[in-house]
């Protein structure tokens, strides 16, 4: 999951970013509303954490610009305002959820999982493809009942593939969702991490789940077709 954090309190922005990254999320940060509008105009995210009170443009203006562009990206408002009318205004403007400062990171993570579940059409925190299971809350992968140890980046890639089960994902689309603006790695990073996943997920199993579609990208599905 790639998430934009738009929060002008730099310390809080950094803390949220580090927490999300430790949980396997990919994050970008900005510190004012106009910068958020600009970034969202050319980059797609799986979710946005959006402070309401920001310089240059408040959260309501950012959300309005996002929705006016036809984007349905889930948005979680962060704010110190806890009056009912403020929460109602935020939700009526098109926000998907609302969290009042100060907040617990456990609640933030749970709300993010719930928002992104809905956007991907999932009904729970468990994703499955064949005998492969991914528990998003416990950050755990198993195949045939056996635990699979994954790095944070491998987990993020597998999660993205499984959320898009049966859909061929171009390398560029995968790269845009799994790496942020600061990434300075090689151009074959997607291929490298797909190779890592194949070794751990498919290995010697006669039923392969991760497939290369030549000239198009990658897909995860139960059919054993290359």
Report what the structure shows:
The chain has 226 residues and is of the alpha/beta class. It has two domains: 2-119, Response regulator (Rossmann fold, 3-Layer(aba) Sandwich); 126-220, Winged helix-like DNA-binding domain superfamily/Winged helix DNA-binding domain (Arc Repressor Mutant, subunit A, Orthogonal Bundle). It has eight helices and eleven strands. The protein has helices at 10-22, 33-42, 59-68, 84-92, 105-119, 152-163, 171-178, 189-201, and strands at 2-6, 26-30, 47-51, 75-79, 97-100, 126-129, 132-135, 140-143, 146-148, 210-213, 217-220. The strands form three sheets. Strands 2-1-3-4-5 form a five-stranded parallel β-sheet, with helices on both faces. A hairpin with a 3-residue loop joins strand 10 (210-213) and strand 11 (217-220). Helix 2 runs parallel beside helix 3. It is elongated and about 55 Å long. The protein starts with a strand and ends in a 6-residue tail after the last strand.
Write the layout of secondary structure elements.
Blueprint: E1 2-6, H1 10-22, E2 26-30, H2 33-42, E3 47-51, H3 59-68, E4 75-79, H4 84-92, E5 97-100, H5 105-119, E6 126-129, E7 132-135, E8 140-143, E9 146-148, H6 152-163, H7 171-178, H8 189-201, E10 210-213, E11 217-220
- Given helix and strand content, the structural type is alpha/beta
Order of helices and strands: EHEHEHEHEHEEEEHHHEE
Instruction: Please work out how many helical segments DSSP would assign.
Output: 8
The first-to-last residue Cα distance is 27 Å
* CATH architecture level-2 label of the largest domain: 3-Layer(aba) Sandwich
- Oligomeric state as shown: single chain
Strand content: 15-25%
- Biggest sheet descriptor: 5 strands, parallel
Task: Describe the global form.
Answer: elongated
| CATH topology annotation of the largest domain | Rossmann fold
- Record field, number of beta strands: 11
Total number of distinct structural domains: 2
Please state how the strands of the largest beta sheet are arranged side by side.
2-1-3-4-5
Query: What is the gyration radius calculated from CA atoms?
Result: 18 Å
- What ranges have pLDDT less than 50 throughout 5 or more consecutive residues? none
Q: Assign the CATH class of the largest domain.
A: Alpha Beta
Q: Give the CATH H-level superfamily of the largest domain.
A: Response regulator
Average of pLDDT: 87
């Amino acid at each position: 999951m790639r998430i934009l954090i738009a929060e002008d309190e730099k310390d809080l922005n950094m803390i949220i970013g580090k927490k999300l990254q430790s949980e396997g999320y990919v994050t970008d940060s900005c510190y004012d509303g106009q910068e958020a509008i600009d970034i969202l105009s050319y980059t797609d995210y799986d979710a946005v954490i959006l402070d309401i009170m920001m310089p240059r443009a408040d959260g309501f203006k950012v959300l309005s610009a996002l929705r006016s562009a036809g984007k349905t990206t889930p948005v979680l408002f962060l704010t110190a305002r806890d009056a009912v009318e403020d929460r109602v205004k935020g939700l009526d403007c098109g926000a998907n959820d609302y969290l009042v400062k100060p907040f617990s990171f456990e609640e933030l993570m749970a709300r993010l999982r719930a928002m992104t579940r809905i956007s991907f059409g999932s009904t729970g925190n468990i994703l499955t493809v064949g005998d492969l299971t991914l528990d998003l809350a416990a950050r755990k992968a198993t195949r045939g009942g056996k635990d699979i140890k994954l790095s944070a980046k491998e987990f993020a890639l597998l999660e993205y593939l499984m959320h898009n089960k049966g859909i061929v994902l171009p390398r560029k689309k995968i790269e845009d969702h799994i790496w942020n603006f600061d990434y300075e790695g090689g151009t074959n990073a997607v291929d490298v991490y797909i190779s890592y996943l194949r070794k751990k997920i498919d290995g010697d199993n006669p039923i392969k789940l991760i497939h290369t579609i030549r000239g198009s990208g990658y897909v995860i599905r139960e059919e054993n077709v290359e």
